[in-house]
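Dear support,

We are seeing what looks like truncated structure output for some complexes. This example has two components. We would appreciate it if you could run it in full and send us the complete token output so we can diff it against ours.
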Amino acid sequence: MSSPRLGFEVQAAIADAEGTPRARACRLTLPGSRGNAHEILTPMFMPVGTAGTVKAMTTAELRSIGAQIILGNTYHLYLRPGHERVERLGELHKFMNWDGPILTDSGGFQVFSLAGLNKIDDEGVTFQSHIDGSSHRFTPELSMEIQRALASDIVMAFDECPPYPATPEQVRAAMKRTVKWAERGLEVPMKPHQTRFGIIQGGLYEELRAQSAREITALPFDGFAIGGLSIGETPELMQKMAYYTAPLLPQDKPRYLMGVGRPEDLVEGVRAGIDLFDCVMPTRNARNGQLFTSRGKVNIKNSKYADDPAPLDPECPCEACTQYSRAYLRHLFIAGEVLSARLNTLHNLTYYIRLMGQMRSAILENRFDDWTKAFYTKLRT
Amino acid sequence: MSSPRLGFEVQAAIADAEGTPRARACRLTLPGSRGNAHEILTPMFMPVGTAGTVKAMTTAELRSIGAQIILGNTYHLYLRPGHERVERLGELHKFMNWDGPILTDSGGFQVFSLAGLNKIDDEGVTFQSHIDGSSHRFTPELSMEIQRALASDIVMAFDECPPYPATPEQVRAAMKRTVKWAERGLEVPMKPHQTRFGIIQGGLYEELRAQSAREITALPFDGFAIGGLSIGETPELMQKMAYYTAPLLPQDKPRYLMGVGRPEDLVEGVRAGIDLFDCVMPTRNARNGQLFTSRGKVNIKNSKYADDPAPLDPECPCEACTQYSRAYLRHLFIAGEVLSARLNTLHNLTYYIRLMGQMRSAILENRFDDWTKAFYTKLRT
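Here is the complete output from our reference environment:
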């Protein structure tokens, strides 16, 4: 069932105590929309470019810090500026000036979490725009058509993500609907370079996760995502469910844990056997002054940094850490300067992407457990 | 009376119909605070870095677009983060990571225009912080001490800028006080690399401008600024007064027109014989979506740009113009994205700095009148 469009090679994998291959370093190739084939070396974090821009960054900066793939949001781009407009203007890559690969989500998660009153039926979801309250309807078919117009490299299936907490009956119904919607989406033809990922649902119920994994992986997707996590449950429950679900997905296809998470969650995700991650945390928290460093979190607005001449993170090679002091970064944040959002975002994304690179090296050099221990030790000093 | 600290050479000057030297290309040298001598080729525009940052820009970007000198605001930096803190952290250049020259204003204009209720007497000005309403007092001496702590390369005298409109009596009183404050400021010792500019006041009254110029230029300043313009009067009146005042200033010292202005105002200022300019217009208007181009102003939020694939200004080499469409710039503005402020600011500053470079070349090649005609023709097409 493997698509010739997506190439995937497991370069190294580390088995757990039961002999199950877990943490892995992979090479993913995509044909690209203009004959510019893409390569992604995993584990990798995908910065979130919600509305055709990774907030506060230029694409040149994203390239410079090692971002290999970014995410675009179907829901946001459909509402504004409109997917047909983006297509007329040369598709999403050209519109936003990013020549690397783009993954688009299906819009499913946003219509449930962001949009106003939504009404779900077997055919699709009717919802109100969070921008102007106007009424819209997404179906699995329309989600594919939008993603086709955007011309992303990886297209996500349209799924139903039940809220947390939810009863087993609610989660089962959403899981079953997600399978049907996945099948309907697969009937919609996409552009030649586009590949597709299916989404596993099932909430925090192992039995439902297992059933979802069986049914979704039976479909001809190029990769698989674990959805429906990081929506309010504790990090421990999230990590446990990712650890349970990851080995239920094929060894020879990429695995993506959606919407996760904190640095520790990425480490635990990689340990579980996940290849790809996305989350708004590094970008959103940056704008709120919360910075991730090799020694743990820094809340840059704290008055203790007002006279601190030290770099934010002495181990970080980014412009914020090599060119400025904590005192200056605090000043920018307190003064509400645009440069605060810029430098903080640049730093947090650099931290996340370097973290993935360190894990990849550790896996390739068969020292992932040691690396993980050192990571936690340093984080807690 | 010329200070050995500031070097100044008029490389070319164009005489008006009466034979008065007017538009000129000059070379200004400053010793720098760390043995890094600075050169400024005029006419030049100085981007405004109010609170230790030119809003939305990094200093690396400022260098890349040809900015040769930037401005810092004494009033803002005194209030936040505090000039003594900036000095402890290595002075303003190091704090904000800018190794080129910095001009600091005296805080005079801000305490009259930005601060809450202010009370002026011969000794100084008592005012309320626009940030928290706290009470503060500036004197000519304190203004010098703040600028000494910041360690700017060009220090501005503390002046009284009367409002517009004002009676001749009000303007005369402020003008006389400005002379006394200039003398008092000159008594305060500065750091060895620092140079000082005096400020001409006199409102829109030629007689008072002439008297102010006589009295201020008799003092041992390294350069002279025309203050008290662009505060509400029409552009025509502003241009007329700058044209009247410029030749009253010494030929062998730099001339600076404070707070001006629109591209046309810069052209008329250079025509009058001005060397240096500063204004928040390119940076502030950028954040409001008003962009300056070789064909006139573009209000990027206008719906007519929603599907426009063309570059903002086909003649501009900046990242916003070479990498993105008008449609994308409009989308970013409408969506309230940080990248909108970034790209718009980068473009407007590039436009302003290139405009100055074009005028400099035209003066050096003795074709300034032709250049000016072509500038206006194109602007109005």
